Amino acid sequence: MEFPFTVDFLEFEFNVIEKGLKVQDASKVGPLQDLPNDEQHISVHSSSRVQERLGLVIDALGEASCAAQGLPAPVTTSDRLQNSGHRLYVLVEPGVRGAIVLGLLKVGFKQLFLRDEHSRLCQVRPLCVLDFYVHHSRQRQGCGRRLFDRMAQTEKVTANQLAIDQPSEKMLAFMERHYGLTKPLPQSNHFAVFAGFFKSSVEQPRPPEQHITCEKAVRTRLRRPHSYDSSLVGSCLDWPCCDGSQPVSRSRQVYRGRQAQGRAAESRGSWTPTREPLQPRCSSRCSSSWGIFGLPPPDHCRASWH
Asked: What is the pLDDT of residues 19-58, one digit of tens each?
């Protein structure tokens, strides 16, 4: 790609650009640091002429990548790069009129939920390929392979350790042709990972048995035994005729409150029941429960003991 100005500020063959739009040699930087969200902050930069031109180069590369992949909006922009923890690799080679920009490769860490070969849901935070583009005039000439290898060497990763965001058919063909990676594992979030990704994944925040799907977790909760206050025995234990030290359920408290309101209204003569008031289930159900355990009911329940 050529621009109406020189791009001599991209002075290396493989340029690394991060927050602050500072250009570095990709062969002399370490792997990208995965900082927690609370340590990532919006960068404040001085608006120099070099940074403005560098921003134009990044935006032009992002738009070209967007058009080549048929995306609705560019993935790579100078504003997003300045305010994120991502890293941009830019491939440049010397030309007759100065340096020529050939392509870009953007990587960054993402928190993802991915399914492994056994369809188990895993939470991982791998290094992801977020954007990859080589100018159409230099495709199929080894430029993409050189750029990808430089990134992998700097980040100290292999191709199967990366997650690829919404890979195009060309990208999948590229991974198969150069790295022998075929049949990506299907994911609902449009990321692609290949065989061996989960074996080489460094981050395993929870044991494999806790990586299971949410559906199985729900079934596990449904199989748990009911607590005492939701069981038959528990519903008997909190009735008025039983030991007052037992906890009273919320539904029983509401029932008692309504009974008290009814008695107060009846004593004032402002309420006449249209039917017999509800009776506590103590006289039948609780007494029968005492019988289940082979015990006589309390004295105030003996009248209803059968």
From this structure: 889 999 999 999 999 876 544 544 444 468 889 999 999 9
Contacts of residue 22, defined as CB under 8 A and 6 or more positions apart, other chains included, come to: none
Query: What phi and psi, each to the nearest 5 degrees, are found at residue 189?
Result: -95, 10
How far apart, in Å, are the Cα atoms of 2 and each of 95, 103, 267, 269? 10, 12, 94, 95
Judge whether residue 74 has pLDDT over 70: yes
Check pLDDT > 70 for residue 85.
yes
Cα dihedral 237, 239, 242, 245, rounded to 10, equals: 70
* Domains delineated in the chain: 14-216 (3.40.630.30), 228-304 (no CATH)
Assign residue 187 a region: left if phi > 0, alpha if psi is -120 to 50, beta otherwise?
Answer: beta
What is the rounded distance in angstroms from the CA atom of residue 60 to the CA atom of residue 54?
10
Residue ranges for the binding site for acetyl-CoA? 132-145
Q: In what order do the strands lie in the sheet with 14-17?
A: 23-25, 14-17, 87-95, 98-109, 127-134, 163-165, 191-192
In angstroms, the CA 132 to CA 118 distance is: 29
Q: The whole model's pTM is what? A: 0.65
Number of C-beta neighbours around residue 204 at 10 A? 12
Binding residues: 132-145
Distance CA 13, CA 19 (A): 20
Residue in 200, 145, 153, 150 with CA at minimum distance from that of residue 177: 145
